[in-house]
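A favour, since you know our structure tokens better than I do. Would you make up a two-line entry for one protein for me to read? Write everything out right here, beneath this request.
=====
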Amino acid sequence: MSEMNEMDLKKNAISGVLVIDKPTGLTSHDVVQIVRRGTNIRRAGHTGTLDPRASGVLVILLGPAVRLSEYVSASDKRYQAIIQLGSSTDTYDAEGRIISTSPVEITETEFEETLRQFVGIIEQTPPPYSAVKVKGKKAYEMARKGEEVDLAPRTIHVYSLELLEWAPPEAVIDIYCSSGTYVRSLAHALGEKLGCGAHLIGLRRTKSGQFTLRDAVPLPKLREAFETGTWYQYLIPAAEALSDWPAVELTHEEVEAVRHGNRVTATPDSPNQARGISEQGELVALLTLDPKSNEWQPTKVFFS
């Protein structure tokens, strides 16, 4: 086997996570393309879009780990947002056209009291300039053409909102929320409730699922590692992407059974879902418990 073929085989076998601190000015897709070129691995995808104006934690799955996307994408997020009070825009952020202005005559206490009204399980309407599809069309495409965009509200969970800095007309807040939350919509709704209008002028994602900025490598640093061939040092095992799931260590025989879609015996009082991990720490499968037979049923197998 040639050296090139061996290298290709090794790359095809790579499965894991790259956590990147995305800079502003790039789309999430731009970063995925950079990773594909840098690793020579075509199978790569992100797990939660960050707008070009936003920065912070962007989780990218490589190789077979992309099959974890539906689970990782659904994980909770944390942001630091800078909100401009006193004006509203049609896009709910600084890129849009100002549609109303009003003097900011509220106190820090009033702001915090209003902020608390958005904590909990709430209904939120996505911004008209978003990628949400309406009758097969993206909302922002319709909005740009002047078409009426009627977006249905969605249920989200805002776990906490904390005022970090009060410097009117700007306020910096920490947002811990469920996946699918639009911080732009939150800023807009907050402005409406305060009566002075508001829009988002800065956004940084500080946490996505189990990963925080501490786990993230700055994109320029990762690009240098692509050039020197040392990027593997930043690759996190696929099993860590769902580290909040219970882990079940499988014996060699159980690994072989699970890889072929067969069930294996569970221990008493096992959780409903778990990660099946090999003795070497490799993610083998996601498992669902059949309580009647007390067996693990592999629902998604990652290696064959």
Notes: DSSP finds eight helices and 20 strands in the chain. Residues 77-202 form a domain with the Pseudouridine synthase fold (CATH 3.30.2350.10).
